[in-house]
Specification:
elongated, homodimer
């Protein structure tokens, strides 16, 4: 841990020990951060108030998360972890991998906390701190689509000229849009969405005609 | 016009004449309604304030739109009309029809007013008045996807077992999600999204294998 390098600055090591993941104090603090975020929004969130709500000394919170950004990022990450969306599905077929991914993502986004975050992001500009945090979390988990795609390509399940990033961007946008507009996205609906994206809407005849045009060009 | 039936109730016909679409007073009132909606949100919107902002007598506004719902619905409709999203594209190919539809929808949703509405809808519950208004406008324009699909089916462009409502629902959700998350959705991106939805992500080999499984079942 990098913070070890900074230890020799005066206060005893025991007092400066950073909180460790999984500790009850960490869990309580992140939960309090999420509640405060829901209550006052990102702009008005204060680390002091999070600490008070968690019943934790504010210097304890600052020692682990020195900025509001860091604290909120950790709170959002902890929710994502709880919904298992960091875990790369590996079922042996791209269809089932995508269904598993979308199912988890929908469960996260339609949870009370997930909806709160989606609504906040919808209300904020893309230049906002909160949007930057969301993008950074997403970036940190690019291994998930990458893993799914690499295995799918090895199995020859995806067409050669597919833009994989587009597939995932579209899936994510569709999940956001569906959750923001309606209340329930059930299991059957998830399967239909994935199947439409895999199979496409075109008839075999149109597909053949489009291929012929591309070959001529 | 139905209101003709109610005319014989006392006030002279000229004073009771309802405002007609396209009149400058109508345009000014709907624009003012949109500005008020942006400024205070749906809950706090008052017809009196809209009238004052438009420089119109409030009874004139009430005569045409007797409720806040009716006024806001008309304001949202007028924006949709300005972006030509009520017009059914008919280009001769489902691909170009969908590209035209998505292009207009993206232009509407990424306009200043469109973003305001999207964000408001994202913040409101599906049971809210504003969500009900949005659904009613959408319902009133189901002729658009219907028109596109009927012609596409006649031309044999779509696969037989396609769920058309799913295609449009996914497109709409994806547009909402894309606009809410990022800043720019350009023309090239629109084409890529439509092509992915038409072609699907699957390789021809996987497609054939999936068909074989369906035939066996």
């Amino acid at each position: 841990m990098k913070s070890g390098l900074r230890k020799a600055e005066g206060t005893p090591a025991s007092r400066r020990r950073p909180l460790v993941r999984g500790e009850p104090v960490v869990r309580r603090t992140l939960k309090a951060a999420m509640r405060e975020l829901e209550r006052v929004g990102y702009g008005a969130l204060r680390i002091e108030n999070v600490a008070a709500r968690a019943g934790v000394n504010k210097t304890t919170v600052y020692r682990r998360w020195s900025t509001k950004q860091a604290l909120v990022r950790a709170a959002l990450l902890s929710i994502a972890e709880r919904h298992d969306v960091m875990h790369v599905p590996n079922t042996g077929s791209v269809r089932d991998d995508l269904i598993a991914l979308v199912r988890r993502s929908i469960a996260l986004k339609s949870s009370r906390e997930g909806r709160t975050i989606l609504r906040m992001l919808a209300a904020e500009s893309p230049e906002s701190d909160l949007s930057a945090i969301a993008r950074s979390i997403q970036k940190a988990h690019e291994a998930i689509p990458r893993g799914i795609l690499q295995r799918a390509k090895k199995r020859g399940e995806l067409r050669a000229n597919l833009e994989p990033s587009l597939l995932f961007e579209l899936l994510r946008a569709a999940c956001d849009g569906l959750i923001l507009r309606s209340r329930n996205v059930n299991e059957r609906f998830v399967v239909r969405v994935v199947d439409l994206l895999l199979m496409g809407a075109q008839s075999p005849r149109s597909r053949a005609a489009a291929r012929a045009v591309r070959h001529q060009a």
